[in-house]
Amino acid sequence: MQCPVKKEKIAAMTIHSLRRDVAQMVMPRIDGNKLDEPRYLLQLKGLIKEGIGGFILFGGSVDRTPGQLQELHAFAEVPLLIASDVERGLGQQLTGGTRFPSQRAVASAINRNSKKDVGLLGRMLDAVRIETRSAGIHAVFSPVVDVNNNRDNPIICTRAFGDEPEVVEWFGAQYITRLQKPSGKGKIDLLACAKHFPGHGDTDQDSHSVLPVIRADRARLNRIELPPFREAVKDGVEMVMVAHLLVPALDPEKPVTFSKKAVTALLREGMEFGGLIVSDALDMGALAGVYSQEDIAVRAVEAGMDILLHPVDARVTIDAVVSAAEQGRLTRQRISESVERIMAAKTRLGLMSKARRTAASIDYEKHGRIAREIGRKAVRIVYDGKKMLPLPGNAGVACIVLDDDDNTESGNAFIHAMRGRFRNMSAQVLTPGADMPESLVLDSIRAADFVVLAFFSKISASKGRSGITGKLREIAMKLLRAAREAQGTSVLISFDSPYLLDQFKDADVCIAAYDRMDEIQQAAVEMLAGEVKA
Q1: Selection from 102, 291, 275, 124 nearest residue 197 by Cα
Q2: What is the mean pLDDT of the chain?
Q3: Which of 148, 161, 389, 419 is the most exposed place for a label (fewest CB within 10 A)?
């Protein structure tokens, strides 16, 4: 459980102005790549002088961003809380940071019964914690503890540890306890965040665009979706992020973000969660496409939200909550409760102390080796019924990359590694937006002993799918038929969603890689060549 701060001490730290207290609850976006632009800085400084509580950081570099963030702190009466989406390590956001594999890839790589593997996972999480705090970030919106029990989920997918609650609970606990490792005298280096409460796994819709509906009954929620969050609370997670979902079993009338039954009665009181409750981004289509900015802000605070994340306009959000409090719709106590929790979190992070932290010396090369080791262990053979692997080095290979996002460079690392192992190889990249060079591709397939199809399909906001377009699927089916007619062996590899492999039952070999990192692309080739144990 969270370490409480004495109320009299917190009262002395609060700002006593309603508007400035409300501002502490608002966390707008900050673009790290624009922190050297005078006009942009002026806008940020204006928000800071109004008492804004912190920012969610997107972009930047390890060389410049820490110093730029430190300069912003100088304008703040109360220290800023800087958060970021760092599900895959600091390199996901800041150039120069280490990019680690997706959560699903990590779960594939780490054998929970192996002390060596568990130690490797611990070193990875230590690296994430050290790099992130050294960059000036205090809170990470990680881990994802959704149970991805819908194979068509367009936004969670490989961001989750898997589709079994027990697996999600175990890995979630490892992330939380290691990221929030105590730093002495009741302090911690980093706040972790369990998301997306009460569970975003069982939907085929993306809340960035629409309001998904989770139709599970309460018994199923208690069995599948909610246990990882209960475990996270037991593990002392400092933050929980609430998803924009409609869950009729919890509240048939309101989205969870607006539901006091779900947020206050279930999470805060029922699970006895004492930390920060954070909304998902308030500019997402699930809410912003239906409600006004003002209505979203007030309803979220009514439900029990402590931090209003990524609003469309921070000042409009502050104005709305202040007005609701002045008119009696929100009580001053409701605001004060959230401010007390925010101040308590900043105290645990050591932000209220005037003592400056010594910049850590970071061995990025060492961290890169950890990322590569986990990536290499993540690749898994899903099916090889005829035991066709490894592929002979002198075999004729037709390598075809199918990219769902019209990015002709997605598979560069894979193709380069393939050329280094298979001399008699042809390579093509096909995308939904380009016309298929049919005769060229089909001729290469008919001349090959092995046909390797490599799928790339990003898990990204508002895309609406984690698989591939109908057009790309038709192309893939046509290529597989050509391989079968030519009596060649077909090998399918998915570098993103493992579930799209289910669409191709006739392939001879199916491999799930769970992530498109260059190191994982290279590891997949090493597996094909028999250089690593399958």
Answers
A1: 275
A2: 93
A3: 419
Lowest average pLDDT, out of 196-205, 463-472, 489-498, goes to 463-472
> What are the residues whose beta carbons fall under 8 Å from the beta carbon of 21, sequence distance 6 or more?
14, 15, 51, 335, 336, 339
User: What is the model's pLDDT at position 310?
Assistant: 98
* Nearest residue to 501 (alpha-carbon basis) of 59, 158, 5, 139: 158
25 contacts 308 by C-beta, under 8 angstroms: yes
**Is residue 228 packed enough to be buried (19+ CB in 10 Å), middle (13-18) or exposed (0-12)?**
buried
Cβ atoms within 10 Å, residue 13: 16
List alpha helices for 422-486, DSSP H: 438-446, 470-485
Instruction: Please report, for residues 73, 84, 250, 255, 264, the alpha-carbon distance to residue 2 in angstroms, rounded to integers and kept in the order given.
Output: 25, 21, 25, 27, 17
**Tens of pLDDT, residues 371-388:** 999 999 999 999 998 899
pLDDT score recorded for residue 533? 67
Closest of 189, 237, 192, 181 to residue 87, by C-alpha = 192
C-alpha closest to that of 61 among 114, 172, 126, 136: 136
**Helix, strand, coil share (%) of the chain residues, nearest 5:** 45, 15, 45
How many whole angstroms separate alpha carbon 177 and alpha carbon 173? 6
| HSE of 198, CA atoms in CB hemisphere, 13 A | 36
Place of tokens 């002495």: 184
Q: Which residues contact 332 (CB under 8 A, 6 or more apart)?
A: 18, 325
Q: Under DSSP, is residue 183 helix (H, G, I), strand (E, B) or coil?
A: strand
